[in-house]
Amino acid sequence: MIDLRNTNTLWGSIIAETFSRLGLTTAIICPGSRSTPLTVAFAQHSEIETIPILDERSAAFFALGIAKRSSLPVVLICTSGTAGANFFPAIIEAKESQVPLLILTADRPPELRNCHAGQSIDQVKMYGNYPNWQTELAIPASDLGMLRYLRQNIVQAWQRSLLPSPGVVHLNIPFREPLAPTPEPLHCQLQAEDFFAGISNFSVAKNTFSLEITAQIKNYLSQWQKCDRGIIIAGIAQPQNPEEYCQIIGHLAKTLGWAVLAEGLSPVRNYANRNPYLISTYDSILRNREIAEKLSPEIVIQIGELPTSKTLRSWLENTQAYRFIIDSSSENLDPIHGKTTHLYLDVSQLQPIIDFRQTNVIKPENYLKTWYNAETQLRTKITRKLAATKTLFEGKIPWLLAQNLPPQTPIFVANSMPVRDVEYFWQPNHSQIIPYFNRGANGIDGTLSTALGIAHRNQSAVLLTGDLALLHDTNGFLTSNKFLGHLTIILINNQGGGIFEMLPISQFKNTFEEYFATPQNVDFAQLAASYGIEHQLITSWEQLQALLNPLPEKGIRILELQTDRQTDAKWRQENLAKFATDLVEKSPN
């Protein structure tokens, strides 16, 4: 438990033991010399899983994936110098998506800084304003007062990574030599059980409401019930309990008689049986200007972040409906700057406020029926069109995944085009599939490593990604020898950035291909072979479907689909517009 071989081992073991007692289960360790006392302490701790990962950027995103899945902080350890700088992209994503990470950067002592001692940079506050909290610890010392100081700073770090909102904590930790666990005389009288007596597992309990706040929410509920032109937007969300989350949203929708516009990255689409008023084709519906105008709402309940759809955001901005945002974070979730009231609560906290014993469901009025009729028409049109599409069109992939993946499969959706195709085409289902994503900063970095972190020691998982996002993080494959579980990578290889084909810059051919689409011309079969990864080239939809259910239990495999990004972009532009144009407004009576 406590390593008394020298002052540094004592310091490191107290850090590891304190974190363990608070609830830490996983530490990701990057190799290096200055971090030796931390590496030894965590590697020797029997209650903490330690995973060595060579590349710091990949390690940070792997930790991010584990923390996303567990909602518990994960420790990241690195040596001094530029090693910690490679954590920065994942730190930004963790901050923006409110994921708890504990960054421990080893450092040289003050006397070896600013004197070209080697592998020494200014690491104090190196992550700017992104951490919830950051500090530099004192030089290790063995007297009891300093050990108490260390213990309390570790407790503070753990708590600050979870409160008031989950995020990043950075501890910069200087060490003098000897860095190895070389025995040295150590005069320390420490009774471990007494020293750690006040420390126990610390997690964040759900907030309890005062009678005043409960009454306020009930007043809002009464106001909502009087409105027959309201909608609920189930936006981007990764709830810890997706079934409860979807059940509460479904009950709220039935109580109010309101449509639920569910983002493709929301679990609501995968619990379709919980909600009879589910709208998945809102992006196409709202492209029909006449119907979009008639569907203008009076009240909108926005749960979580707004969906990706620009069409939806533009419509909300134009209609200027009064919006209630339900989310427990203190972040501003209104990028369109509308008339909003932010209710700082988790969806689960609506449960005692809404009467779940109520059995009568409000009869859908004309406004809801207009939504429902449009959804029915468009879902039928999209299904028929995609079912008849024999060529390898990118948008058909998420449509097939929704129908064929095993129940409760975790799926990580990469940014750029895959996340948009999921919003357009992911079909509502009852499979309880669990979507994951990095939509905090919306970057493509760390895609593979995050997906591996989510899949580690988890149910067999899937990554849906384009070629550039995968290539940007191929060092993630270095983790394969430590990875436990299975990840199937659905690779859309369209020779470049498909998202740019949807943007105005695609018309400027003289610079577009080389500077925006940036095709890389990589043979993924050879790339996979170099890492010992299974690879299969998919040439038909039937072949893909046969490989989706069941999924393997171990290893990593790439299922590559080679598509044409220009043809696919044209398909989206033509058909999404045509779906909307062909909508027939049926009489709601």
List keywords for this structure.
18 strands; 20 helices; 589 residues; single chain; six-stranded parallel β-sheet; 15% strand; alpha/beta
Characterization of this structure:
This protein is α/β, with parallel strands linked by helices and 589 residues long. It contains 20 helices and 18 strands. It has helices at residues 7-22, 36-43, 56-70, 88-97, 144-160, 192-195, 211-225, 242-256, 282-285, 289-294, 310-319, 366-388, 396-404, 417-425, 447-455, 467-471, 509-517, 524-531, 541-546, 565-581; strands spanning 26-29, 49-52, 74-78, 101-107, 133-136, 168-174, 230-234, 259-262, 278-279, 299-303, 322-326, 340-343, 410-413, 434-436, 461-466, 486-493, 534-538, 555-562. The protein is globular and about 85 Å long.
Major sheet characteristics: 6 strands, parallel
> How would you describe the shape?
globular
**Overall helicity:** 25-40%
Number of discrete helical segments: 20
Number of strands: 18
Weakly predicted, low-confidence segments: none
Q: Roughly how many Å apart are the termini?
A: 72 Å
Q: Averaging pLDDT over every residue, what do you get?
A: 92
* Main sheet: strand order: 2-1-3-4-6-5
Cα radius of gyration in angstroms: 26 Å
Structural class: alpha/beta
Portion in strands:
15-25%
Give a short overview:
This protein is an alpha/beta fold. The protein has helices at 7-22, 36-43, 56-70, 88-97, 144-160, 192-195, 211-225, 242-256, 282-285, 289-294, 310-319, 366-388, 396-404, 417-425, 447-455, 467-471, 509-517, 524-531, 541-546, 565-581; strands at residues 26-29, 49-52, 74-78, 101-107, 133-136, 168-174, 230-234, 259-262, 278-279, 299-303, 322-326, 340-343, 410-413, 434-436, 461-466, 486-493, 534-538, 555-562.
